[in-house]
Amino acid sequence: MHLVQETKNLIRLTRFGMVNCFLVREDDGLTLVDSGLAGSAPGILTAARSLGAPICRIVLTHAHIDHLGSLDALAREYRQIEFAAGQRESRLLRKDFSLDAGESGKKLLGFPGVKLPPTILLRDGDRIGSLQSIFSPGHTPGHMSFLDVRDGSLIAGDAFTTQTGVLAAGTFKLLFPFPALFSWNREVAAESARKLRDSKPARLAVGHGKTIDSPLAAMDQAVELAFRQCRRNATPT
Questions:
Q1: Where are the alpha helices (DSSP H) in the chain?
Q2: pTM, entire model
Q3: C-beta separation of 63 from 89 below 8 A
């Protein structure tokens, strides 16, 4: 597990050079945003010890296997830990793949579920510690992003990736097709990407790729490309 101190309060933990989770420093300890792949718990715990603070809560961007893989293992270490997830996404933690009225998208895959039930269900705009929840569906039906109101750091989960430039979820790029392949609804993802850009983050931290400082111009380009591809692939009426 590779540790990168992004800001005074934001620490990126990277496994296999491509899967990120984050520790956010708060007055009462650390908030862990996502838990990485299965087997990541020892590295996360070592990182927390090196920072001299306990993990007080876990916050989930979405329920894909590479974001919640170590959640149950961490819960065994921290018996009373808070666990916050988006209200819509929480159904996927139980492997409930039903859709709400008006929802549509690809078949939902890659959701193994967890034993630990959320203790907090988040809606758009809710605060947990210094993190403001931003409902940002598209990659998954209930995807959440989190804006640190102290310094403008946006932890965007998989609503964006930065491995081959900044891309919104659902965007197809020939040399890096994963944002398109693993996203549920590209049109909804494009709308969420625009919403996140409009939050005017000072930096963009994502589940896959390096953190980008002063990301607005790159996010503008990513949003424009996402909508352009949506228009190109729209079915004629």
A1: 41-51, 65-68, 71-77, 90-93, 178-181, 186-198, 216-233
A2: 0.95
A3: yes
Instruction: Provide the 3-class DSSP secondary structure of residue 129.
Output: coil
User: What does the alpha-carbon distance between residue 120 and residue 101 come to, in Å, rounded to a whole number?
Assistant: 24
Give 55-65 pLDDT, tens digit per residue.
Answer: 999 999 999 99
Give the separation between CA 25 and CA 28, rounded to whole angstroms.
Answer: 8
The residues spanned by each domain of the chain are 2-158+203-212
For 8-41, the pLDDT digits (tens) are 999 999 999 999 999 999 999 999 999 999 999 9
CATH class for the region spanning 2-158+203-212: alpha beta
**CA-based radius of gyration for the chain:** 17
CA angle at 152 for the pair 190 and 119, rounded to the nearest 5°: 80
Q: Which two tokens stand for residue 206?
A: 């994502």
Count of all residues that appear for the chain in the document: 237
